[in-house]
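Give me the fold.
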Amino acid sequence: MICRIANGAGFWGDNLDAPRSLVEAAEVDYLTLEYLAELTLSLLARSREKDPTKGFTPDFLTVLTSLLPTLAAQPKLRIVTNAGGMNPQACAAAAGQILTRAGMPRVPIGVVSGDDILGRLNEITHAGCRFENLDTGQPLAELGQAVASANAYLGAGPIAEALAAGARIVITGRVADASLTLGPAVHEFGWQWSDWDRLAGGSVAGHLIECGAQVTGGLYRHWQHIDLAHVGYPIAELADDGSCTITKPAGTGGLVSRETVIEQLLYEIGDPAHYLTPDVDVDFTTVGVEQTGPDRVAVRGATGRPAPESYKVSLAYRAGFTASGQLLVYGADAPVKARACADMILVRLSDAGHRPEAFQVECLGADQGVPRTAIVAATSHEVMLRITVRDPQRAAVERFAQLLAPLVTSGPPGVAGYAVGRPTVREVYAYWPTLVPKAAVLSRVEVRPASRW
């Protein structure tokens, strides 16, 4: 038995046409859609604050609408996504309306929640959890800033539970990326939660496809030799022993090769001998990767150990305000003029009584975007000046936003790009990586027909 699990989204903002193109070009058992990152959760937390019916990724609704014909034509196709973000119930309600209007009111939608522990921080702290920052060791109690969101990375268990209850679409909040694939695999093969090597293999498959086209040629070092304009998104063909073959729909662009798979395999894994997920501790050093045919790569040999006793938590806190603005500076010695413009803005801010906590200057085009990776002539004739300011006080950032445009007529010659208007002042959500005991997190699974959400 082979279970075919595809992924049509690697982040919020990925190609909206990819999921439909994928399932129209290849028949799969599951389509996963991965939308969340630490930054995404902060954005969704702010969205929910403004409107309690929001807080999920709206791209999913666009994608779901495009998939309606395929869902009708392929009744066995199931979708698993973390598009629920900060508000999976609201996402399910919106998805339910789309399905009901399309004449599919009975499609079962499963919702996985419980990852949002913001309202339980005091309770969990009183039980002994210090929510120590993984980078600094500082306990959360010493932060002194208002917490905006706190989400535990749930595992594959609740997803498998929702599928076992009959869900055709599973919408989650924050779960680990690889768990979107592992949940369906556990459900299909009946793996036990102590089958560490199988769980490791399923997690490796999930890790390989979680970033969408990155495993099918995106970011590939020999990108010039493949068609990325029509890049195909990945399919993992999983076997009961936990091995898999990575491929993509026939006739699509991109490439699945031993190199593209290994590049993604090593992406964001930290210690390769201990890739920690909520489901299993994976040893990547035992994994074998073999090209078995055109656009087909076999991945075998993953081994696993018992999962950690804690969940990772993505916690964001309010850290003031920020704004970023740009001006094109051209002419002789453009980098020198650009930095002089930045100095003028800093002086004018000081004259107005503001000394911002952070004032970052970048001369893009003069070895500033990725420092020390290029040699640029000191006499570059065109740079983009980008200045970013952060401060606890909104007034300081608002004053900065008013100071860029005046340089067009009160700065050195060769300053342009003012048509975009003043920079937008935004609230800053800073990241606090931490852990929470699994026993303190209570996941919940609900499955209902689309029309009842």
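The CA atoms of residues 409 and 415 lie 8 Å apart.
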